[in-house]
Amino acid sequence: MARGRPGLSPALLGLLPLAFLAVFFAWPVGAIVRLGMDAAALDVLADPGTWRIVAFTLGQAAAATLVAVVAGLPVAFLLARVALPGMAVVRALVLVPFVLPTVVVGLAFRGLLGGGVLPIVLANAFFNVAVVARTVGGLWAHLDRRAEDAARSLGASRWRTFTAVTLPALTPALGSAAAVVFLFCATSFGVVLLLGGARFRTLETEIYLRTVELLDLSGASALSLVQVTAVVAVLVLGARARRRREAALKLRARVESARRPVGGEWWVVGAAYAVVALLVVPIASLVARSVDGGFAGYRALSGTGHAGSLSVTGWEAAANSLRTATDATVLALILGVSAAVALVSLRRARFIDALDTALMLPLGVSAVTVGFGYLITLDALPGDLRTSAALVPLAQALVVTPLVIRLVLPVLRSIDERLRQAAATLGAGPWRVWREVDLPLAGRSLLAAAGFGYVVALGEFGATSFLARPDTATLPVVIGRLVSRPGELNSQMAYAACTLLMVVTVAVALVVERLRAGELGEF
After folding, report:
1. How far apart are CA 217 and CA 221, in angstroms?
2. Are 134 and 521 in contact (CB under 8 A)?
3. Per CATH, the architecture of 11-34+294-517 is what?
4. Lowest-confidence pick of 9-13, 63-67, 289-293
5. Residue 82 pairs with which residues in a beta bridge?
6. Which CATH architecture has domain 47-290?
7. How far apart are CA 35 and CA 144, in angstroms?
8. Helix pair angle (439-459, 102-113), 10° resolution
9. How many CB atoms are located within 10 Å of the residue 279 CB?
10. Is the predicted pLDDT of residue 137 greater than 50, yes or no?
11. pLDDT of 4
C-alpha cells in the first residue's frame, strides 16, 4: 500500500508530555522518595501511630469503594439498559458529583452530617458513583442479552442470572472501576481535611499537617514514600483491569438498543433513581445553607471576611480561579492530545502499555505529595518557580492531563484505520492525516475534554493549597481558609463561595455531558 510523504512521526509527540512529566512529576516525587529514606524518616515508619494512619487510609478507602460500587451498579444498569424520558438529565446528575471541588463536597457533608468516619466514607463514595456507573455501564451496554435470556428460560431466577451470567461478564469493568475509585479515595484530601479534623487523619492530610504546621519535612517525606508505594501498586492493578475491560469491549458489539424495563427490572430502576436523588441532597443542602438568613455571604464576597481573614476578596479569588484554570486547561490539552496521538501512532504493545501507565501516574499520586515535592526541588530551575504564579497552573495541568488522555484516547482509537490509510494513499503526510481525518472526528471529544479539565482545575485543592501565594489564592483555597477560621461571616462566605463554584461546575458538566452523549467510558 502506498505511503504518505515522509515526515516527522506523530509518535514523537509523546516526548512532549514525557518531558513535562519528568520535570514536574518524576523529579519532585523522586526527591520526596530520597528525602524519605534518612534515619529520622525511618523513625517515623517505625512509629505505630504511622501504621494506624495507614490502616485508616486504606480502611476508609475500601469502605467508600464498596459503597460506590453498590450504589453505582443500579445506576450503571439504568444508563446501559434503560430507555426512559429524561435520561440525559440523569447522566448529567450522575456526572456532577465527580467534578465538584472537594472542598465543596466536604462542606456540604459537614453541614448535613458533621464530621467523623461515616461522613468521610459517604462523601468519598458520593464523588465516585459516576466512575462506577459509567465504567461498568459502558461494558454492560455491550453485553449480549441472549445469554441472560437463556439462563432465565432454563429456570434461573433474576438474581441467579445476574450472579452467574451478568456479573462475571462485568468483572473487567468492575475491577477497573474499583481500582480507580480506591485510588481517588485513598488520596482524598479536601474531604478528609474538612470532615476528619485532627481526629481522623489519612496519609494525605498527615503529609499536609506535618509540612505546613509541624515543619517536619523528613516525616512528611517518609509518609509520602509509603503513599507512593501503595499508589503504584494500585495503578499496576488498575492498568491490568483496564486492559481487560478494553479487551472485553473489543470482543463485543452492541447487539440491542436500550429498552423499557420489564418485570423485576423495575426495582433496579427504582434503586438507581433513589441513588440519583441521594446525590442531589448534598448539593441542594449546600445551596440552602448559602441563603440561610439572607444573602449576607454573597455580599461579603466583596470583602476579606471576618477580621480580615483573607488576603484577597472573594471575587478576586474567583478571578484567580478562572485565570489559573484556563491556563492549566490549555496546557493540559496540549499535553493530553499530544500523548493520545502518540499512543495511537505507536505499534509496540508493551511500549504503549508502559507509556500509558506512566502518563496515568499523576492521577493517583497525591497532589499534596507533588506540591510538597515542588517546594524542595524547583528552586534549582532558573527564576525559582516556587515563587512564581505560574506554578499553580503547572500543578493543576499535571492533574488534568491524565483525564484529557482518558477522554480523547478511546475516540482516537475508535477511528477506522482504513480512513487514515486512504488519506495516506492519496499522498497525505502524517500531520495532514491527523488534521483532515482524526481532528474532525474527535472534535466533540476534544471540547468535552476541555470542559471536563476546566472544572477539575477550577476545583483543585490539594497541590494548590500548598503552592498558591496569599495574593493569588484560588476560590477552593479561600473556602478552606474561611471554614478554618471563627466567625459567622466567614461561614456564610464559605457557603456562598461554594455555591458559586458549584454553579459553574454544574453548568460546564451539563455542556460536557451533551458533547459526550452516548459515551459511557471512564469518568
Report:
1. 6
2. yes
3. Orthogonal Bundle (1.10)
4. 9-13
5. 259
6. Orthogonal Bundle (1.10)
7. 53
8. 50
9. 18
10. yes
11. 42
Residues whose CB falls within 8 Å of the CB of residue 435, separated by 6 or more in sequence, listed in order = none
User: Cell for 11?
Assistant: 509518535
Burial (CB count <10 Å: 0-12, 13-18, 19+), residue 346? middle
For 474, phi then psi, to 5°, come to: -90, 170
- Helix then strand then coil, % of the chain, to nearest 5: 80, 0, 20
Cα separation, 316 vs 319, in Å, equals: 5
Nearest in space to 61 (alpha carbons), one of 180, 171, 215, 168: 180
Given a cut of 80, whether residue 193 has pLDDT beyond it is yes
- The pLDDT tens digits of the residues spanning 236-287 come to 776 666 666 656 555 555 555 556 666 667 888 889 999 999 999 998 888 8
Give the Cα-Cα-Cα angle 268, 129, 324 (nearest 5 degrees): 150
Separation between Cα atoms, residue 125 and residue 206, nearest integer Å = 21
Q: Which residues contact 326 (CB under 8 A, 6 or more apart)?
A: 454
What b-and-e string marks burial along 311-326, b requiring 16 or more CB atoms within 10 Å of the CB? ebbbebbbebbbebbe
523 pLDDT above the threshold of 60? no
* Predicted model pTM: 0.80
Q: Give me the pLDDT at residue 2, please.
A: 39
Task: Quote the DSSP letter at residue 329.
Answer: H
More confident: 49 or 246: 49
**Which set of grid coordinates corresponds to residue 9?**
512521526
Nearest Cα neighbor of 112 from 124, 102, 122 is 122
CA dihedral 401, 135, 248, 407 (to 10 degrees): -30
Q: Report yes or no: 498 and 107 within 8 Å, Cβ to Cβ.
A: yes
User: Using CA atoms, how far apart are residues 108 and 236, in angstroms rounded to an integer?
Assistant: 33
Contact 516, 445 (CB under 8 A): yes
Q: Which grid cell sits at 72?
A: 453505582
The phi-psi region of residue 498 (left if phi > 0; otherwise alpha if psi is between -120 and 50; otherwise beta) is alpha
Pick the closest to residue 501 from 482, 518, 519, 520 (CA basis).
482
The 10s digit of each residue's pLDDT in 5-27 is: 444 566 677 788 989 999 999 89
Task: Name the nearest CA neighbour of 403 among 523, 232, 238, 246.
Answer: 523
DSSP code of residue 382: T
Contact 99, 278 (CB under 8 A): no
Query: Within the chain, which residue ranges are assigned CATH 1.10.3720.10?
Result: 11-34+294-517, 47-290
